[in-house]
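COURSE: Structural Biology Practicum
ASSIGNMENT: Worksheet 4, Part C
STUDENT ID: 0417
INSTRUCTIONS: Below are two proteins. For each, the amino acid sequence is given first, followed by its structure token string. Answer the questions at the end about the second protein only.

PROTEIN I
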Amino acid sequence: MLLASLILLGLGCAIGGGIFGNDDSGVVDDSGGGGGNQGDTWRARGKGSAYLLDGSQDHSLFSIELTSCMEPREGEAYHGWLTGGSSPIYLGEIPVLDDIVLHEVELDLNAFENGYTTFQAYVSDEVPSAPGEGEILWYGEIPASAVEILEDLLVSSPESDEGSLRAMETTAEAIRDYGQAASDGFTDIDTFRSEAEAVRNGIAGEEEDVDNNGSVSTISGLEVALIGDNGQSAVILEDFQEAFIAFGGDSADEDIREALDVGYDCIQRIELHAEEAYSLAGTATVCGAESSCVGLMNRVIEELDYAIEGEDEDEDGTVELDEGTIDCAIEYMSRLMAFEVAVP
């Protein structure tokens, strides 16, 4: 999987708060500024968002961004915790640069799947042994309504134990790898045509004798299809519609609408690439020479790569938001998996 390459976008309290709120930190600023040694003017301040993004595992990277914070008093530090799972996870000291927090911690486990939906931070003059030691500084949790919806997309759904988005990613990778093996290991035309048939059937969840050899070839182990009547793209689009309504629809916060809109567009681009791969694989079932067969399969592989990672259409070296696909959708749905962090 990719990646993933999920990006933290917290919102600052001075300009409108995090994904789920727009008020300020609730503390009057009599400090005369943000960073530096605050002495007797120190106050618990700061607000923004934190996320469980993809790191070494799905949702194993804790990321937080806060603004309008104050640096700790001399001899003290800010200590973070994740709770809600089987035992608290210590996040270490959370540094403040001027008045900004930008901090990431690799957890080496899927924190979302394991129930870590609450963040706490405390001020202390020594390393704490458990949450609650020191003075409470920040608090945030992922809303229960968001947890339920995002589980269907990213953790577990009726169709798959991975969630509908990740099931699509797994399926696309499996079909791509099968096609790559067929291309790399070409032996004869008849065998290759059967392999191309398996790829085509896998993409659409069909069992068709496309090459008319009297038998049907499929890829074993696929749980879902990419497109077609029972394809994951249709399931995911339905999940997105439910998420849109649950998060407030047209009245939702601007960042929520952006995440849902961009994610929806990403899924539609997946369909386009998967449909092109399906068509090319069908053509490969009647290819007549090794060079043309392998060339067609390589194009199938390319389209499936695009379906997973997106296509750099403008060739600027970066897959932009309007070029992304599965990885893009996972990233933007993870942005809804947000801790609204503030001074309690």
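PROTEIN II
(use this one for the questions)
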Amino acid sequence: MAFIKEPYSESRVEMISEFLKKEASIGNSKDYEIKIDELKVVSRNNNPDRFYEYEEFVLPESRNITIIIHDKSHTSTKYILLLQKEVPNGEELYGIEKNLHIKMQHEKSKWAYNQLQRDYTDLKQQLKECEDYCNQLKDKNHELEVEKGKSSGKLTETVLGLAGTYFANNPDALGRIPIIGNILAGGMHKTLSGTDRVNCSCAEAPKEFTGKVNEQDAIRLKKAFIPFFSPEYIEKAMEVVVLFFNDNRFIDQTKAGIEKLIAENRKKQKTAA
């Protein structure tokens, strides 16, 4: 079998087609068959008009077109037309070329393996750094939560400390505000009658400072605290209001103390960061 391998060219294909047509015109038709990447797409025949049927099966990724022309003397000629640059697979090489090919493939595999090892080491180090950073963030978050709790506790202790000191030095302070005093003593827990509930909810709040507190004012105040404080803090908030009511100077002192604690807390956070 004659063997011809070369890059694909239209001139070569046209030459083979014209050859088959000419032989058929003089009564010497040649059998031929065509393959695309070892897939026979035109079966063995002697009709030149079927020659270009192979074009229906050529794909962008097709590697070669093989045209085999058979003679009546049981010989044939094979044309392998390469559609893509051929990469030697080692099976078609012999002697020194085969040894060189094997060695090159071995070196490529070795280099690829070493590269994978380097990539693995780098990724492993990056993962460790990410885990360390994540742990640092968790520790920092925990410190901030603890600091936040301490700051919140300090604010509460400061305000309640002022209230406690004032009430200790002025035991009759609540007595001067009987309505709120009764509420803090548990009077608010009593069940109001239907009429009382209507009156309390419908009564209009004062539009200006009076210096006097009645039962409706106290009930409205405690109701107003419900959206702002959980139940365990409402009574404490009422105590603070009583403190401020008895001596307005405590408002400025408490505000200044809270602002100071907030400033100290922010400074600590910046230092820690």
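ANSWER KEY EXCERPT:
Q1: Residues 6 and 104 are 24 Å apart (CA to CA).
Q2: Residues 134-272 form one domain.
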